[in-house]
Design brief:
Blueprint (H helix, E strand, L loop, with lengths): L2 H10 L17 H14 L7 E7 L5 E7 L2 E3 L2 E7 L3 H8 L2 E8 L4 E11 L2 H8 L4 H9 L9 H14 L11 E15 L7 E8 L2 E7 L2
Antiparallel strand pairs: 1-2, 1-5, 3-4, 4-7, 5-6, 6-7, 7-8, 8-9
Helix pairs in contact: 5-6
Length: about 220
């Protein structure tokens, strides 16, 4: 975190931001507003502003949550990637509903995103996979994500085996690895304010577009 961000964090912590969400924010497209907030988080010096919490649930409603990296967002939805054998993927495939939470404490902002989930196409997954560092590509091949691991040496051995297998060539997209896209139905923006009079602005998707509603904090 930069010195500027550290000072801002100390000044605002527990006090709320002086400037909240203006009334005109309700007229904004929520994806555009998210993009604006994401850019502000990037400029604030926050480490990994793209790190978000992903909440999933089994068909019987047992929840689980973990951090993932938001790799892309647009009108089509919010994209993240994983091993299809992971717990999150198994839950998403059986119960394709999820929630994402972006939290940027320096700015005293959070965004809650809820909706349905679908896999991105193999072509889209491959395009993203090619942008990853070679070590990360090999790590995707080496990890049997969420399965029991006897020792850390076993994982290193798998990494070295795939490193040798693809030596001198491009690392291909693993057939068991890819992306998911959360298609938002609800997006809520939260802005910390003085005296805990926080701003909450909820957008719900309707047949005619996004319907905004302000909420009590």
């Amino acid at each position: 975190m930069s010195l500027k961000s550290s000072i801002r964090s100390l000044v605002t912590m527990g006090k709320g931001m002086a400037r909240g969400l203006p009334e005109a924010a309700a007229d904004r497209d929520p994806i555009d507003l998210f993009s604006e907030w994401f850019d502000a988080a990037n400029k604030s010096g926050i480490l990994l502003p793209e790190a978000v919490t992903l909440a999933t649930a089994t068909p019987d409603g047992t929840p689980s949550a973990r951090m993932v990296l938001l790799k892309e967002f647009s009108d089509r939805g919010f994209d993240f990637y994983t091993n299809f054998g992971s717990r999150k993927a198994r839950e998403l495939d059986r119960n394709p509903k999820a929630a994402l939470l972006a939290y940027w404490p320096v700015l005293q902002r959070q965004v809650r995103i809820e909706g349905t989930v679908e896999r991105v196409s193999p072509e889209e997954a491959n395009t993203y996979f090619l942008t990853r560092a070679r070590g990360s590509q090999l790590g995707a091949w080496a990890s049997r994500q969420s399965e029991e691991l006897e020792t850390a040496d076993d994982l290193r051995a798998r990494f070295e085996r795939y490193d040798a297998r693809f030596e001198g060539s491009e690392v291909p997209l693993p057939p068991f690895w890819g992306g998911y896209r959360l298609k938002p139905e609800r997006i809520e923006f939260w802005q910390g304010r003085l005296n805990r009079l926080h701003d909450r602005l909820l957008f719900c998707r309707t047949e005619s577009g996004w319907e905004p509603t302000r909420l009590y904090p």
